Amino acid sequence: QFLEGLGYETRGVSLVDKTPEAILQECALLILISPKLGFLPQEGDALRLLMKSPLPLLLAVDPPVSPTLVKALGAEGVVLTQKTVINQENLARKFPLTDIILQQFVPGELGRGLTKGVYLPEVQALELSTDTGTPSDPVWTPLLHTPPGDAFRLLGVEGEGRGPFQVALSAVRAGRPLRVLLGSGKGLLSRHVSFGDNQKLLLNSTRW
User: Fold this and answer.
1) In this predicted model, what pLDDT tens digit does every residue of 4-16 receive, in sequence order?
2) What is the SS3 assignment for 110?
3) What's the CA gap between 193 and 208, in Å, rounded?
4) Residue of 109, 97, 114 lying closest to 207 (CA atoms)
């Protein structure tokens, strides 16, 4: 609704009813937020073809993540840890344990105008692997991360280091913007999208 209010035309897309070729012709941007169900084999094949195409993708995922997405992103060197980042200081302030507000951004178009902080409920840590054996395509880089320090750790994991933990990534192919990946989809849903600079991050991601 937020994007439609700004003049964007949005529509649901079925990876079963439409071929990847038809989606490429009809869509300027594919948005996939918090998929709740696993992908059918036909859907998984279509998604993999679309991820090899020049179609930009905004992807936000909550644990547990579909094995189809885990495998597709893993092939590009992205590891979905499915481990929740928590801010231990929130315990004393009586904020929800797994909700964090980030105010450190990578400079560039995606971080333009972000001054209030990005609110991410139940966000998972993301990692970039260097063990794929081939150069990453597309090229992924960090976008949002927790500040270094003892206040942030991974839920249920003892001795997991101090971070910083990556919670959002962006990717380019041949210098062209291609993907934005958030470790939490809840921050872009209607209940939370108005918090902090979440709307600006969503808008930046669609315009990038």
Assistant:
1) 777 778 888 889 9
2) helix
3) 18
4) 109
* pLDDT tens digits for range 118-144: 888 888 999 998 765 566 789 999 888
- Residue 62, judged by CB atoms within 10 A of its CB (0-12, 13-18, 19+), counts as buried
Q: b/e map of 72-106 (b: 16 or more CB within 10 Å)? A: bbeebbbebbebbbbbeebeeeeeeebbbebeebe
Q: What is the pTM of this model?
A: 0.88
Q: Give every CB contact of residue 139 below 8 A, 6+ residues apart in sequence.
A: 171, 172, 173
State how far the Cα of 114 lies from the Cα of 175, in Å rounded to an integer: 23
Place of tokens 């054996």: 133
Q: Which amino acid, one-letter code, is at 190? A: S
φ, ψ of residue 143 to 5 degrees: the values are -120, -50
